[in-house]
Amino acid sequence: MTTEDKSATAQPADISLANRYGRPKRRLSGKARRWAIIAALAVGMGFLAWVSTSNATASVTFKDIGYRTTDATQAEVDFQVTREPGTAVKCAIKALDSKFAVVGWKVVDIPPVDEAQGQSTDGGRTVAQRVVLRTESQAVSGVVDNCWIPKPAA
Asked: Is pLDDT above 60 for 150?
């Protein structure tokens, strides 16, 4: 067998593999690769900017402290709210029964606290609240559903 015969038999095998598995994939050119990297970096920087500003604007947090059911028609919920001093907040409080159904609901206004009032040790950021809820039936727990900064009246 000559070298011409070997190359003649290798070529159909290459064509046969290309037909079976497809042609080899083209690589991105240097210019296209560079633009893809620039676009990925721009998207990443935009995402980081969004995350950092969204954390700065989400300035209201709350923590459930406890609850007490006095009877089948009333429950008390104790909680803390942390926000910027001088900011009014609204919180939705709910009482739940043993099947996690809502048996009491109330939206409460938490007025801004002046730093001079001295109700908290952190300059008015965190305030403790106790809310009394009327319930339809015996509640077995009471929690804060959500707290938010209300939009100013137009």
From this structure: yes
Q: How confident is residue 117, by pLDDT bands cut at 50, 70 and 90?
A: very low
The Cα–Cα gap between 105 and 133 comes to 7
The token pair at 141 is 């727990």
How many CA atoms within 13 Å lie on the side-chain side of 69?
19
Q: What are the start-end ranges of the E strands in the chain?
A: 61-71, 74-82, 89-96, 102-110, 126-134, 141-148
> Which carries the bigger pLDDT value, residue 59 or residue 34?
34
In angstroms, the first-to-last Cα distance of the chain is 94
Give me the residue label for tokens 């159904």: 101
102-110 sheet: strands from edge to edge: 102-110, 89-96, 141-148
Task: Please tell me the distance from the alpha carbon of residue 20 to that of residue 151, in angstroms, as a whole number.
Answer: 64
Question: What are residue 77's DSSP bridge partners?
Answer: 67, 131
Q: What is the C-alpha to C-alpha distance for residues 42 and 5, in angstroms, rounded to an integer? A: 55
Read off the DSSP letter of residue 29.
Answer: P
